[in-house]
Design brief:
twelve-stranded antiparallel beta barrel
C-alpha cells in the first residue's frame, strides 16, 4: 500500500465514516517497492559460457536472509560476501558498498559510476575511457520470465536467467546480481 493510500485510510477510519468502500490494494506481484528489497530465494542460471555455447549452470543465489552465494571455478558454492538488506542497501564485510533506489545503484566509494535503473533495464558501465581507453555502457534487461538479455558490443544475447517464484524477489536478485555484471561483461 502506498503511503498516501495508507494516510487516506487512516484519515477515513479516524472519522468513523467512509463515503466509499475501501479499495483493495493491488496484488503484491505487480507492486514494486519504491525503495528497498523484497528478499526471498532466487537462483541465477548461466545460459551462455565464455565461448557463447549454450549451458544451464546455476552460478549465483540470493537467500531469504539477504545473503548471497556464488559458484567457484571448482563448482563449489561459496558465500559471495554480499548481504542485501530490506532497506535497499548492499553490504560486504560489515561495510555498506551500494544503495539501490528506483533510479540507480550507487556505490559507496568514489570513482565507480552508478548503474542506472530504468524500470527493468540497467545501464552498466563496462569500460571507462580514463581507465580502459574507451567508454562502453551495456544495456541489461530483465524479462518477466527472468531472462536477462545483454545488449553488448558483440550483439544482443540472453546471458542469464533468474529463477524465483515471486517477481519482486526476481527484481531484487537482478539488482543485487548487477554488482557482478561489470566484472562478468568486461
Amino acid at each position: 500500500m502506498t503511503r498516501l493510500a495508507f494516510v487516506l485510510l487512516l484519515a477515513a477510519s479516524a472519522c468513523g465514516k467512509s463515503s466509499a468502500p475501501a479499495a483493495s490494494p493491488p496484488p503484491l506481484a505487480t507492486t514494486a517497492p519504491t525503495r528497498g528489497f523484497t528478499l526471498g530465494e532466487a537462483t541465477v542460471v548461466e545460459l551462455l559460457d565464455k565461448r557463447l555455447q549454450p549451458v544451464s549452470n546455476p552460478i549465483w543465489k540470493l537467500h531469504a536472509d539477504g545473503n548471497t552465494e556464488g559458484v567457484t571455478k571448482k563448482g563449489e558454492w561459496k558465500s559471495s560476501m554480499v548481504l542485501a538488506k530490506p532497506d535497499g542497501t548492499l553490504w560486504m564485510q560489515g561495510e555498506k558498498v551500494a544503495t539501490v533506489t528506483d533510479t540507480a545503484i550507487t556505490y559507496a566509494f568514489e570513482g565507480t559510476p552508478p548503474i542506472v535503473i530504468d524500470g527493468d533495464s540497467l545501464s552498466v558501465v563496462v569500460w571507462q575511457k580514463a581507465h580502459d581507453g574507451e567508454d562502453f555502457t551495456a544495456k541489461v534487461e530483465l524479462a518477466s520470465d527472468g531472462t536477462i538479455t545483454v545488449h553488448h558490443r558483440d550483439g544482443v544475447r540472453a546471458y542469464w536467467k533468474i529463477e524465483a517464484v515471486d517477481p519482486l524477489v526476481m527484481r531484487t536478485a537482478f539488482h543485487v546480481f548487477a554488482l557482478s555484471m561489470k566484472t562478468i561483461l568486461d
